[in-house]
Structure prediction request, 387 residues.
Amino acid sequence: MASITSGGRSLVMARASLDTLLDVLRSRGFRLVGPTIRDGAIGYDDITSSADLPAGWTDEQDGGFYRLRRRDDDALFGYNVGPQSWKRVLFPPSSLLWRLREAGGEAAGPSDEPADRFAFIGVRSCELHAITIQDRVFIGGNQVDPVYASRRDGAFIVAVNCGQAGQTCFCVSMDTGPKATAGFDIALTELLGDGEHKFLVETGTELGAEVMAEVPHERAAAADTARADHIVQHTAASMGRQLETGGIKDLLYANFEHPRWGEVASRCLACGNCTMVCPTCFCFSVEDVTDLTGDVQERHRSWDSCFTMDHSYIHGGAVRPSNRSRYRQWMTHKLATWIDQFGTSGCVGCGRCITWCPVGIDITEEAAAIRAADCRIPDEGGAGGQP
Prediction:
């Protein structure tokens, strides 16, 4: 486990200085988005001060189970991850792509709207990796998505190193956490105990250092960095789930007809919850609409899911008409074909798909079951071949 200081100079900031940090970001024109309690869960929404954060709250998670409960301290980031990810801000569930008013001959698109400069407060390491994955999809190729690009451009990221692991977390298996190592402007580790409440601060960019120069702080002592390292190491050793990733791409490619796909399909409701909460899923549908007069035409984009029948519909019917084929598509894409497309797994080990599945289907359990009963037919040399 790398030292907490590996990404830049380490500082210590008192709990009260967090509001100063938020004020500095706001004065620089950033719109603050951070964790807050809403509808019985911790999600991401606009915030104005640390008073909006879920102080003293944590969450209990398991397959198909999520509950908030009180902590015995006032930790601001003492929870895991909720049903929302930063995808909700960068790639909104619904967005206007294009509008035409016939009367004036006026056309407008997303690039014509003034874009907010976001400051994301409390981004976990797994979520940083998820943002990087969506960057590849939406702005990393020849075709740049204007909605995503306008929201991503200039975003300031305040990461938080995890102080606890959830029962459905497996970021260590995916090498995506629990410590933030890149992709942030400032990274915090919350330190509580002995009557103290403060943050170890690591600056990851020049802008992050400039912002921290306006916030009261001290140089971190060796004892502070040691505490922070211990917190992260303890979290890494406390994962609720594990996923063996060695050779998983070839394993899934070679087991398209594995009987496990039928077993999981008998439980799957094809509700799409797993894709909605996933921080890397990017499927969407496009709809053209017009008003009753025909004077205004609009094109809208909204999240879609590979679990819906219409998602794979072409002339003559759906390509994947069964739950079996749709679940296989989702899991194989996430853990295998994504690697061929984007050079990385599409899973960051956040565990949201396990927690928010109504019937508690567990991607780590499904992968382990296929590995345990690998149905590849060995070739004459003993190596696994295609079935």
About this structure: The chain has 13 helices and 18 strands.
